[in-house]
Amino acid sequence: YRLQAGDLIELYINDEFFPPEGAKPVQKAAPKKQPNQPKVTVNILKYHTTRIYVVGEVAKPGVYELEKQHKLMDAITAAGGYTKDAAKKKVMIISEGSIKKPLEVNLLEILKKGDMTQNISLKDGDIVYLADNHRIDLGRDVMPFVGFLSIIRNF
Predict the structure, then answer these.
(1) Which of 2, 37, 40, 64 could form a disulfide with 78 if both were Cys (CB 3.0 to 4.6 A apart)?
(2) In sequence order, what are the beta bridge partners of 71?
(3) Are 153 and 116 in contact (CB under 8 A)?
(4) What pTM does this model have?
């Protein structure tokens, strides 16, 4: 893991705590003789966040701040997963400031074939868009009209 802006860490060198810059200084004893091979411990207390926009056919469209992992599947999962109407073969990723065509990702390659090359890393400000698959759902799209027509015929 490479530290990034926004990470919060604790640092110990030879079991001596070094507070983050701006924190209260710790009373230090007289300097000890430093060994040739110091013991360095770095604890990551909080990972930086990446703000991602997930829109379209997901359960909870919105803005999500992802910690640690910033992959496509992490963003979709944070948004409650895709809906049954999502076009899983054509997920669009629009990068902030990019003038290039949006990147198209096939979620089915990840889900059915395990192709993790499709689970791309996202950058701060990226937009993940899951379009509608444009399929007709008999129960949702047709049956209400059939019921309506039967009511009209009975008049």
Answers:
(1) 64
(2) 121
(3) no
(4) 0.65
105: left (phi over 0), alpha (psi -120 to 50) or beta: beta
| Residues forming beta bridges with residue 103, ordered by sequence position | 93
Residue 56's region, left for phi above 0, alpha for psi from -120 to 50, else beta, is: left
Strands (E), the chain: 8-13, 16-18, 40-46, 49-56, 62-67, 86-94, 103-105, 127-132
Q: Which two tokens stand for residue 30?
A: 């007289």
Instruction: Identify whether the C-beta of residue 82 lies closer than 8 Å to the C-beta of residue 58.
Output: yes
15-69, pLDDT tens digit by residue? 888 877 655 555 555 556 666 788 888 888 877 788 999 999 999 999 999 987 7
| Burial degree of 86 (CB within 10 A; 0-12, 13-18, 19+) | buried
d(CA 74, CA 76): 6
Q: Are strands 103-105 and 62-67 parallel, antiparallel or unpaired?
A: unpaired
Distance CA 49, CA 153 (A): 58
| In the block, residue with structure tokens 């791309």 | 120
